[in-house]
Write a structure and sequence with these properties.
Layout: E1 3-6, H1 7-16, H2 21-29, H3 33-39, E2 53-56, E3 63-66, H4 70-84
Antiparallel strand pairs: 1-3, 2-3
Helix pairs in contact: 1-4, 2-3
Amino acid sequence: MTKTISFNDLRRIKDSLPDGSISKIADKLNITAQTVRNYFGGSNYDFGKNCGVHIEPGPDGGIVVLDDATIYDMAIEILQEQEQE
């Protein structure tokens, strides 16, 4: 399912994740950590792949359309677990 979010909000989520979360998500999905970083706005495609992230210029960093919200959902789950602790 697609998800639309501002680029700045997507980066805020990534920056709020506790240490090791990128690797944890990558391990669960059997992808590289760099692919997860690319999902959150990185651009190193030598060591990671594009994950269906489409960025349109605009206010608040632009609009991001995520083709698959799996990584986003996992990140939100990690943040919710962190809040409960």
